[in-house]
Write a structure and sequence with these properties.
Strand content: 15-25%
Order of helices and strands: HHHHEEEHEEHEEHEHHEEHHHHHEEEHE
CATH class of the largest domain: Alpha Beta
CATH topology of the largest domain: Beta-lactamase
CATH architecture of the largest domain: 3-Layer(aba) Sandwich
Largest sheet: 5 strands, antiparallel
Helix content: 25-40%
Structural class: alpha+beta
CATH superfamily of the largest domain: DD-peptidase/beta-lactamase superfamily
Number of helices: 15
Number of domains: 3
Distance between the termini: 40 Å
């Protein structure tokens, strides 16, 4: 039903009355009407038709006017629903935007983005479908990422290794009763009891294979070989030592068991200063339990193996499974292992110093520009890492689309109020965005971060990265949730000004 009020007489009635008057006038004075009639026909055939259309077209109520959406496409009927020009008092036509002022991006998050809890705030938001930048505040400034770095580590591992890659641990037979346990970066290798990595390979499986190969031949020496990469940079000098003593991070060696945790079943558990030595002790116990002769009293020596005669092998679960264990719980150990293994498998040397180049090369394969990023570690614990929110948001466009295997990462991202490190987040007023934010959290002493994608209230998918630098965690987390929830509410109408 139209809200337009009916006129006393319809337009066709008035036109018929006017036509009758014209015919009467022509009958009385035919000559002057010949020339004038031609002009009248031209006017009626052009402007008159427009006037009729304008007179009969209902004017939409303000609440019914179409709202422009970045993903909307105008239909043919929409383009004819309103005049394309508006007459001015002087009669000159001025072009009119068919969508009107509502086509502008007018929703702002400036208040939420100015919260003191965000510290030195950096943020960047994109429309994932169109690539339009909707918001940027210091968004091009490379800075510390916290564990948002793990999204880059994952993307690099998927590009270099692939989701099906498995990381081996082997045992070689040397001469003189020596065998060597050789690590290649699988931190999930387990002693066989409780573990935070369900489904991981075990030392017991290796020991049983050794027993089957050696029979009654005694073992006199157990060599522990972590030379797959040089362990001289096993601990980054920018990492607080408390990360190891509290239990968030081990020394990054190519051979360890249960992530070098004192309690293998606890995600956060103190780590040792000698993961390789601990692995040797646990392997000796496994060999003795398997009945390998002489193992209980065998000497443990740390060095490179002298043999390529492999007598036992186990492999990690696929990289895709490791990512599924790393991302939701923000496991630093797996992140460092995947970074170093990616370096080695790409042809580099597995050092921390190699990571910037390795990551840049791998990330280019997704069609993003990683120039300028600085990678000090795979976990994001170093405050010396430098990656802009701009880059993270662009990478997330590829992640949310599942490009080149990145769906593995998209599926592993924590979800606001539902899973992973976001399970207890987005409460109170921010609960409006629960279930709609898929993002990796980051937390180091000097920064709290969040990066991923949002299914906004208007149906638009946005990618984003927000960094709260220099503020306390207690202040930063609700502030990050608030600015993210505000972004969710704005959707495609978000403006940075």
């Amino acid at each position: 039903m139209s809200d337009q009020q009916p006129s006393p007489r319809s337009v066709p009635d008035r036109l018929r009355d006017a036509a009758a008057a014209v015919r009467a006038s022509v009958a009385r004075r035919p000559v002057p009407w010949i020339a004038g009639g031609l002009a009248a026909v031209l006017v009626l055939g052009s402007g008159g038709a427009v006037a009729v259309a304008a007179a009969t077209m209902p004017t939409p109520r303000a609440s019914e006017r179409p709202v422009a959406d970045a993903s909307a496409t105008a239909s043919p009927s929409a383009t004819t629903a309103a005049p394309t020009s508006t007459p001015t008092p002087t009669g000159r036509a001025v072009p009119k935007d068919a969508a009107g002022p509502s086509a502008l991006r007018t929703c702002t998050i400036s208040t939420a983005a100015s919260a003191s809890g965000l510290g030195a705030f950096e943020g960047y938001v994109m429309n994932a479908k169109t690539g339009e930048v909707l918001f940027s505040r210091n968004g091009d400034k490379a800075a510390q990422t916290g564990s948002v770095m793990k999204t880059l580590t994952t993307a690099t591992a998927l590009a270099v290794l692939g989701g099906d890659h498995r990381i081996p641990t082997t045992v070689t037979k040397e001469s003189g009763g020596a065998i060597a346990l050789v690590g290649h970066g699988d931190a999930t290798l387990s002693a066989g009891g409780a573990t935070v990595y369900p489904g991981a390979p075990t030392l017991g499986q290796l020991a049983q294979q050794v027993k089957a190969k050696l029979g009654s031949t005694p073992v006199t020496t157990i060599v522990t070989d972590d030379t797959y990469w040089n362990d001289a940079d096993a601990w980054d000098p920018t990492w607080p030592v408390s990360e190891r003593t509290i239990g968030y991070q081990p020394n990054v060696t190519a051979l360890m068991v249960d992530g070098d945790r004192a309690n293998p079943g606890a995600a956060t558990s103190p780590r040792s200063t000698d993961p390789v030595g601990r692995a040797g002790d646990l392997f000796r116990t496994a060999l003795a339990n398997a009945g390998v002769a002489g193992a209980a009293n065998a000497q443990i020596v740390k060095r490179a193996t002298t043999s390529s005669d492999t007598i036992a092998t186990v492999s990690s679960q696929p990289v895709s499974t490791l990512i599924g264990q790393m991302i939701p719980n923000s496991d630093n150990t797996l992140a460092e292992m995947l970074a170093r293994v990616s370096s080695k498998e790409s042809g580099s040397n597995g050092s921390a110093a190699s990571l910037t180049s390795v990551y840049q090369t791998a990330l280019k394969s997704y069609g993003v520009d990683p120039s300028g990023i600085v990678i000090k570690d795979g976990s994001g614990e170093s405050a010396a890492n430098a990656v802009s929110p701009n880059f993270v948001a662009h990478l997330m466009v590829q992640v949310q689309a599942g490009a080149k295997g990145l769906g593995t990462l998209a599926n592993a991202l924590p979800v606001s109020g539902q899973s992973g490190t976001l399970a207890s987040r987005f409460t109170g007023a921010n609960a409006v965005a629960r279930g709609k934010v898929h993002a990796k959290t980051g937390w180091i002493d000097s920064a709290n971060t969040l990066g991923g994608y949002i299914d906004a209230a208007d149906g638009t998918r946005l990618t984003f990265a927000f960094y709260a630098i220099g503020s306390s965690r207690a202040a930063a987390l609700p502030a990050l949730d608030a600015v993210t929830a505000a972004t969710y509410s704005c959707g495609s109408k978000l403006t940075g000004s």
